[in-house]
């Protein structure tokens, strides 16, 4: 499936999950696509202690990892309330580190000033990543 079709499907899946899981108020959802053409979605774990919270994408990443599938795309979408427009959140630094498990070429949805759906390679989001100090074979987890 072409990247644009995958990306549009992911965006639609995220919106549908937000609308069903959070019919009123704030909402956020993430969708991950894998090399096996599977889609995994997740929401943020809500806790009373903010330091125990996890990013919206973590559940979907764990599903991909559980099934030993290579992540190809990651997208996080939020809205402020049921009357607000949807917006894409670029992965935070911790999620960028988590996604690096699947390589520099993972495509991630990024925040844009014009609110357009845009994906870029993780390596472009982190052009000076610490892992460049080591040989690639020391850090690779997946065989293509």
TrEMBL record:
List, alphabetically, the InterPro entries matched. Answer: Cytidine_deaminase-like (IPR016193)
Alphabetically, the GO molecular function entries are: catalytic activity
Superkingdom of this protein's organism = Bacteria
Against Gene3D superfamilies, the record matches this protein to:
Cytidine Deaminase, domain 2
Q: What is this protein called?
A: Cytidine deaminase
Q: Which NCBIfam families match?
A: PRK08298.1
The organism named in the record is Anaerorhabdus furcosa
């Amino acid at each position: 499936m072409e990247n644009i079709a995958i990306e549009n499907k992911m965006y639609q899946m995220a919106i549908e999950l937000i609308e069903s899981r959070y019919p009123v108020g704030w909402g956020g959802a993430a969708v991950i696509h894998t090399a096996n053409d599977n889609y995994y979605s997740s929401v943020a774990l809500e806790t009373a202690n903010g330091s125990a919270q996890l990013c919206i994408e973590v559940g979907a990443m764990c599903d991909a990892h559980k099934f030993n599938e290579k992540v190809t795309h990651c997208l996080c979408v939020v809205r402020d309330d049921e009357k607000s427009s949807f917006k894409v959140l670029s992965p935070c630094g911790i999620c960028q580190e988590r996604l690096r498990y699947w390589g520099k070429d993972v495509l991630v949805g990024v925040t844009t000033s014009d609110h357009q759906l845009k994906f870029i390679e993780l390596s472009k989001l982190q052009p000076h990543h610490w892992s460049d100090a080591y040989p690639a074979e020391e850090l690779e987890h997946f065989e293509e």
